[in-house]
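Session log. Operator J.P. requested a structure for one protein chain; no other inputs attached. Running the standard single-chain path with token output.
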Amino acid sequence: MNTHLLFELKIPRNKYIVDESIHLEATLRNAGEETIELDSLNPYNRSLSFEIVDSRGNAKSGDLLSPITREGFPPIFPESFSTIILKPGEKKEVSTDLLAIFGELEEGKYTLTASYSSMPRVNVHSTPVKLTILKATPKYSKTDQNHISVVNMPIRTAWLNQESKGYNLFLMENSQRLPSNLNLNIKILKLDKPFQIIPAATETYGQEWEHMIWQTGNSLRVATVKGLLIPPPIKTVDPPLRSFHLLEPSFTDAEGNLYMLTSSGKRIYLIRIMLNKNAETIKLTESKGKLKLYSIIFDFNRKLHLASVYDEARECYYGSFDIHPSERPPAPAEIEKIAETDEAIVDVLLNQGYESDIREFVTYLYYLTTDERGTYRAYLTNTRNRRLERYSYCSIPGGEDLELLQSALDEENRWYQLFQDKNGRLWFTGYETPGLREAVPGEPSNSIKFPTLLITSHLSPYHGVYLRYIKNKSRFAYRLLKPLR
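Structure written below.
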């Protein structure tokens, strides 16, 4: 029925790499001479369905609700269908990302079709669209670990794909409910060299502005991302001293203002770039020696918190700073000793936690120590009252030969650690996790690059600690290390 209803699909190009977003537009057009009433393209109507078939005949199907059901949400069926009115010549369009509908598509050639159905007795099909998925060659990956502070904020990663000439910078967003689900993975910039790109932490999900930062010689390069595009120019920022180290993460607030920290000798500087203005450099504090370890977070009041360890790695210092512009520039602030140990501190991490008795978010400090026998001790301290909240230790045979790659904290400030041995194998342990176990058993160590711990939302049915890594230099792989309930 309704041969005068035209239905077409459009994609901007026909070649993509594995896990790249595929933007699609589906259009319904009334080519007849009469006005018609149809079921709308609202995802909950489920009037629009897609099928993609590879060259071997293997098929995947989905609809506009698939990005939600793949997250573990049950399908919702409306009591009544919403409708649209199409006059002669009018059209209705909907945009979507096939990556969010189908998930990962392997290398190969595919045929995409879609169907639209409506009551009463309307069923139209699109013409087939051909596309090719090519092998990816990821060479670098950096993840903003700020996602856990905001429930269900996607996990944002900047990564580089090597091309025949140069590199493409991608911005990837993994679901905080299940990391193997990708919200998007888009190409945003062409680079001539494999710079170590650092994504700035963002204040809110979906904000219009964000930033990508990298260092070239004695300068910083800042790419402003607006609506997932990078409008020119890319800014060059010269820190106050030629010899400097960029501290991670930087921070982009909801208005598009960027805050970066650099260390030069014993001085720590704040570089503040207000939207559409030049960079402003402010001396933030004096350190207690050569900076060895540090952790930075930005709280919900846009206050910066810094934990730092120096030289002999037996003492940890902490300070918080107001960084938002005011009538007076921030005066240099002192950092205070918050912890001292007889053993070497090998990691520090700050995180926020809600204290119901005072109805406030409080900053917690986690630090990890080790001795020459391979005994690791983890501590959690409340920075507000300096009280030790949690402690555990783990004696690891041969632990003195392990390298700590990453610590991570969940929403209850329980800790987890990822280690690597001399043979390149990965090992995992953590709070209430007995002993040490291999993170990716059976996987050759030379096939694993850029391993990263990711923690999912406590509201997710897939809540847990996950490992993501680049496998065989060609794709991102995921593994659940510890379910959390």
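Operator note: The chain has a mean pLDDT of 91.
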